[in-house]
């Protein structure tokens, strides 16, 4: 899907008029086009399948925990179209020597976040994609984020963080593994 920039430009112009602004004044003349280009960039993940990042696997006899933590991301809340941003922490235990490139975990986070989203959906989609494509013993995804819809409007509580988890396989069944992942995430 290609973003319809012309439609976005028209909509932004209408929004500016609706809030009492003059879209033809000097500072706003290029704003509709800039917003359209921005949305095209922000929504790059719309037609991308995060599972594709796990098509390439490597044979490595490693069946211990793999964790990539502090993966920065940003997304737009699908309820208000304002940003939320934070970090994803992705852990899995490879099975049968099937490991993926570490950057692929970050790429999957990026793909899932680049669409109108809910934090809960980001968390579970990443976990499900890894389970489906890599068939690991277990997966744990932890996402912590600040939501501008809670900071800028409504309750107005800057700094409040939302934490979501998705735990699958052995990590769901064995609390000691979950504890180890959480401990490693907290390490500096």
UniProtKB/TrEMBL annotation:
GO CC term (a single one): cytoplasm
Binding site for Zn(2+): 77, 80, 149
One matching Pfam family: GTP_cyclohydroI
Pathway: Cofactor biosynthesis; 7,8-dihydroneopterin triphosphate biosynthesis; 7,8-dihydroneopterin triphosphate from GTP: step 1/1
A GO term for molecular function: GTP cyclohydrolase I activity
Residue span, GTP cyclohydrolase I domain: 8-185
Gene3D superfamilies linked to this entry: 1.10.286.10, 3.30.1130.10
Enzyme Commission number(s): 3.5.4.16
Keywords carried by this UniProt record: GTP-binding, Hydrolase, Metal-binding, Nucleotide-binding, One-carbon metabolism, Zinc
GO biological process: one-carbon metabolic process; tetrahydrobiopterin biosynthetic process; tetrahydrofolate biosynthetic process
Database matches in InterPro entries: GTP-CH-I_C/QueF, GTP-CH-I_N, GTP_CycHdrlase_I, GTP_CycHdrlase_I_CS, GTP_CycHdrlase_I_dom
Catalysis performed (reactions): GTP + H2O = 7,8-dihydroneopterin 3'-triphosphate + formate + H(+)
Subunit structure as annotated in this protein's UniProt entry: Homopolymer.
PANTHER family to which the protein is assigned, alphabetical: GTP CYCLOHYDROLASE 1, GTP CYCLOHYDROLASE I
Entry similarity comment: Belongs to the GTP cyclohydrolase I family.
Name of the protein described by the UniProt record: GTP cyclohydrolase 1
Species: Seinonella peptonophila
């Amino acid at each position: 899907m290609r973003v319809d920039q012309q439609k976005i430009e028209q909509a932004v112009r209408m929004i500016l008029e609706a809030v009492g602004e003059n879209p033809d004044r000097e500072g706003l003349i290029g704003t509709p086009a800039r917003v359209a280009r921005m949305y095209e960039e922000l929504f790059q993940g719309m037609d991308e399948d995060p599972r594709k990042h796990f098509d390439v696997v490597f044979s490595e006899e490693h069946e211990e925990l793999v964790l990539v933590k502090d993966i920065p991301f940003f997304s737009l809340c699908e309820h208000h179209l304002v940003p939320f941003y934070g970090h994803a922490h992705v852990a899995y235990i490879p099975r049968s020597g099937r490991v993926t490139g570490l950057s692929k975990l970050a790429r999957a986070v990026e793909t899932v976040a680049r669409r109108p989203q809910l934090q809960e959906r980001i968390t579970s989609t990443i976990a499900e994609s890894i389970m489906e494509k890599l068939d690991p013993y277990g997966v744990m995804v932890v996402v912590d984020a600040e939501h501008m819809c809670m900071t800028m409007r409504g309750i107005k509580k800057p700094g409040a963080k939302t934490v979501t988890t998705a735990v699958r396989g052995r990590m769901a069944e064995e609390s000691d593994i979950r504890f180890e992942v959480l401990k490693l995430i907290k390490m500096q």
